[in-house]
Amino acid sequence: MLSVKHVNKSYKKGGLFTRxxxxxxxxxxxxxxxxxxxxxxxxxxxxxxxxxxxxxGINEPDQGRILWDGKRVKDRKTRLGNISxxxxxxxxxxxxxxxxxxxLMEPLMLxxxxxxxxxxxxxxxxxxxxxxxxxxxxxAHELSGGEAQRVCIARAVSTEPRCIVLDEAISSLDGSVQIxxxxxxxxxxxxxxxxxxxxxxxxxxxxxxxxxxxxxxxxHIVEIVNVEQLKDVQSPYARHLLQMVIT
Length: 247
Ligand SMILES: Nc1ncnc2c1ncn2[C@@H]1O[C@H](COP(=O)(O)OP(=O)(O)OP(=O)(O)O)[C@@H](O)[C@H]1O
Ligand SMILES: [Mg+2]
Known about the structure:
Strand order of the largest sheet: 6-7-8-3-9-10
Structural class: alpha/beta
Bound molecules: adenosine-5'-triphosphate, magnesium ion
CATH superfamily of the largest domain: P-loop containing nucleotide triphosphate hydrolases
Order of helices and strands: EEEHEEHEHHHHHEHEHEEH
Strand content: 25-35%
Radius of gyration: 18 Å
Number of helices: 10
């Protein structure tokens, strides 16, 4: 279980001589339960990606704690095999000099145990994300957006983590590909009994895949609702998003 307790994060404001800091996250506390898909939605600049980075240990909070089963996520050992990530920018997520096979092997190489076990499983990983073995030798520039994002998802699931943080992972794909990827994520979730933290602008995608949705505004949690109650959400931003979808 992931537990976030009273997390604050600020960044230094631009300008060489200013000491002013911009508060990006304020007193963020929540728990993520094993196997759940928790959505994080909020306007641009509300702190979603910053929160994602903190959960992944890429970045550190100023105050507060982020714990995975009681251990700090900042420690690489804690994250390894437990948390992985898929980002929006799938093309730069894959090393352009790597073939798909090499890209998929990369996280497995960090995992001593996995190295041998998975040598022969690249085909299976590809198959699970809807690609055949002819993709093994392709480079990132030879893939469509949807295919590249499938490779990133295959890489994220390869170490069989308990939780994947997806930051706008489907936002730059076209509509029908988005639905395919959402379906894929749903299936993988059951197959590997893992969960997601699904960061998005898209309330419809959140409603489709999430069990609970957190609404973030100016670095504060406005509310956390079960997906069945999403239509009764109170915060003006979420209501606005909902109205755009309904009309
Ligand atoms: N490394 C950084 N240094 C300074 N300021 C930053 C940094 N990263 C983010 N910020 C600022 O923090 C605020 C929150 O950014 P963040 O990327 O978390 O928002 P977001 O909710 O993910 O937005 P979007 O929906 O546009 O992706 C923004 O005002 C941004 O300019
Ligand atoms: Mg962002």
